[in-house]
């Protein structure tokens, strides 16, 4: 592996010295944190040296635009996908597909008390899932608030052994995906207790708490599909009704129908429709207003500048595996980012890496790969993929590709061979070789750049 | 410290041998889990040797009963407390009291990515809390589903350093208490975004998500206070309306008004009223039915046998700090357990230890304390307290007090002096010296029996 060399600030030297002392010290001594596992410590150099404002990488238009016609085409596809669940009449899955979690997680995992669960837990989940009765339902619905698609019908977590590097909290394998408020879904199954509903969305499926969705009538569907849509360009936006009453919280990635016949709202901003439940669990529409700083009429023109503006609001948010805590993981970041532009993205990194025009990069030597990327990738448009990870290319810096991504951590290896993670845990801007100044990272041999195996242009014809 | 001696099964010897080998081995070697921190491993002996069915300790009436008159008195007090929030006209707190979290947690804690947060997080919470505007509201409300009282208006967790024994997940210091569905509350403040409401309950206060409560009118209050009440005696009960539609999930500790003029429901079981929200966020009543196996008309006669029956359903549930995941911590276990009997308990262990007639036990030598407890405590009635912990006395076994409690873990100390926790993490029945067969526990000097500093009879006049 070619060491990634760069000018070494004094602090790197000091850091290495401190690390060496630490490693020597903990070799045989009463110990503190296990260096082989979760490594906190100061931020990696990239976070200190690279601007964390995406706009700084979009000062000049980078040619990300696709033109109005192409963007229109893509936007139509987006809407078709988004409302797809309301075109369904029955489940799109076989029972074993929908309830894959019963097989994959049949053995007891580790629970919220960090210990291995009793087998009874898995048995209870099987009973609650009622696989023999799937699919037991066929109704269209919509989410009333930000919620989650769970792999199995429970709010309890499924962890792997906390003692393994990169496992335990917050990696809850039952967390399939966050589901933003106002998402059309198709309900295809009801749990034994009725407390959970199996929801099929346009991009993923899983169990949602029954109270977080409301069923939609034909009339609702017809009115809700107003033909004009508004997307959030800020996170944590409170959506209120005309009386000032709080209805729900919306983040980038959320989409609502525009109310009225287009044209700017009297107050500036956008009048939209939002769903609430009546006392029978059926969806009813309310009017709400979104400020012009919080939302845009879709599709927002796809330019590097606009992408940078939307991305800016998402910077620094903590990493959320499967959207836990309404945070973002690597692929939900990409998906939400593209949404205001009316560009549909699937929910996981492997699928996202296959959208549009794909260029394979595996097998390329490190420097050749670097050159290929920096020569051909389009800032704010090209996606870079490595196994289990996806990043948005932003440009280059001193010959290195620079990316925007939600990253959990970097694999590390101590002198004694203990594997760990140097935690980054947020949406950040780095080179494709973050943390290489750390011996712990170097020793792991897991240079992110070397793991990149493809890049793709998701909006190419 | 006097070693607690008991007959030593062969397995204890093997266990000690294995531990010795392990301790020697990890003294200077590449390592796995840090023995000084979270210790999983096989269950402590008490869990293998003591029946985990409370009914086995109530075969004979233990004299826990208080008599009908006394229980009636206590039940009246319960109802007064339970509905207390609906007698309020304004907040019961000064701003600094209600928003104590802003001071206590002013410094950044550790977040869901396990790293220390930026100061911006604390500043944002201060803005969201609007301390200068407290109290900004004065409305009566009711919870629509099981929810949480948060110390500050956020769903994000506040952890201490994950590298410290007994810290990190799942100890979210922002989790004040679970709040069961159907709990009367008084809303005294609204957050900046309106997404959070400050709710004052009869036993605790904190922030709840706005969508989890609905406001109640005078008419609602009058009808809801039907005069007869039903308590859950099972966990995870699905409550449905007459049309079979799921409304909410109820656990032991939940209370609902009985519908109709008393007498058994036609179907057996109980007709109750449950709250749902209309589209304006106001509470509306629905009828629901509870099975006779899931609920009782309050107050359930207070006998050791009945206490054992209710406790049985709560056994084995994972420990939930502040009711996280709708689990129970040591004091919510006690509070919920006493609820069907109409016996009001405060929400934390220190307060619970002061209810009724208190007998101080600190300063007593270990054996003297043991004798005092086993001589005077009443099974299924007396509470035993140690700092931060509360237990229900069940009787004695071979001279040792036996208790039912929700316990996180036992403090341990490795040979090198590293402090850790042997995790139990559930509602269990043990002696007052669980885990003493483990050297790691012995060395810590934290024998639970020695830490018991008082006992109290919560129903004494």
Automatic annotation (TrEMBL), chains A, B:
Q: Which residues form the SH3b2-type SH3 domain?
A: 217-257
Query: Out of the domains of life, which is the source?
Result: Bacteria
- What's a GO biological-process term for it? proteolysis
- Coiled-coil stretches are none
Instruction: Please verify whether the record's keywords include Magnesium.
Output: no
Q: Per the database record, which ranges form the NlpC/P60 domain?
A: 316-397
Q: Which residues form the SH3b1 domain?
A: 157-209
What the entry lists under PROSITE patterns is as follows: PROKAR_LIPOPROTEIN
- The protein, known as: Glycoside hydrolase
Q: Which organism is it from?
A: Oceanidesulfovibrio indonesiensis
């Amino acid at each position: 592996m070619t060491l990634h060399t760069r000018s070494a600030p004094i602090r790197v030297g000091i850091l290495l010295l401190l690390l060496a002392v630490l490693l020597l010290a903990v070799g045989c001594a009463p110990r503190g944190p296990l260096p082989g596992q979760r490594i906190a410590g100061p931020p990696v150099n990239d976070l200190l040296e690279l601007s964390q404002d995406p706009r700084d990488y979009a000062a000049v238009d980078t040619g990300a635009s696709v033109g109005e016609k192409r963007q229109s085409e893509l936007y139509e596809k987006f809407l078709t996908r988004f409302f797809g669940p309301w075109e369904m009449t029955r489940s799109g899955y076989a029972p074993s597909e929908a309830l894959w979690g019963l097989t994959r997680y049949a053995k007891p995992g580790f629970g919220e008390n960090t210990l291995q669960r009793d087998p009874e837990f898995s048995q209870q989940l099987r009973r609650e899932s009622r696989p023999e009765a799937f699919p037991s339902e066929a109704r269209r619905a919509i989410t009333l608030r930000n919620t989650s698609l769970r792999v199995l019908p429970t709010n309890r977590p499924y962890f792997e052994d906390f003692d393994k590097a990169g496992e335990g909290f917050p990696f809850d394998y039952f967390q399939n995906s966050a589901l933003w408020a106002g998402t059309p879904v198709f309900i295809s199954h009801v749990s034994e207790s009725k407390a959970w509903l199996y929801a099929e969305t346009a991009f993923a499926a899983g169990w949602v708490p029954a109270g977080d969705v409301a069923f939609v009538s034909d009339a609702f569907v017809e009115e809700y599909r107003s033909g004009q849509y508004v997307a959030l360009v800020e996170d944590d936006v409170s959506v209120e009704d005309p009386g000032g009453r709080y209805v729900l919280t919306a983040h980038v990635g959320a989409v609502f129908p525009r109310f009225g016949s287009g044209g700017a709202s009297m107050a500036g901003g956008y009048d939209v429709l939002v769903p609430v439940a009546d006392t029978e669990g059926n969806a009813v529409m309310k009017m709400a207003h979104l400020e012009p700083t919080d939302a845009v009429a879709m599709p927002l023109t796809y330019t590097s500048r606009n992408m940078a503006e939307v991305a800016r609001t998402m910077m620094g948010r903590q990493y959320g595996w499967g959207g836990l805590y309404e945070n973002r993981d690597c692929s939900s970041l990409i998906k939400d980012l593209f949404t205001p532009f009316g560009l549909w993205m699937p929910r996981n990194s492997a699928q996202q890496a296959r959208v549009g025009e794909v260029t394979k990069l595996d097998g390329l030597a490190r420097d050749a790969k670097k050159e290929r990327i920096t020569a051909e990738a389009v800032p704010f448009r090209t996606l870079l993929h490595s196994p289990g990870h996806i990043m948005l290319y932003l440009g280059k810096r001193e010959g290195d590709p620079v990316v925007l991504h939600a990253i959990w951590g970097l694999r590390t290896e101590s002198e004694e061979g203990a594997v760990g993670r140097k935690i980054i845990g947020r949406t950040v801007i780095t080179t494709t070789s973050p943390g290489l100044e750390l011996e712990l990272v170097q020793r792991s041999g897991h240079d992110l750049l070397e793991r990149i195996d493809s890049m793709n242009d998701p909006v190419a014809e």
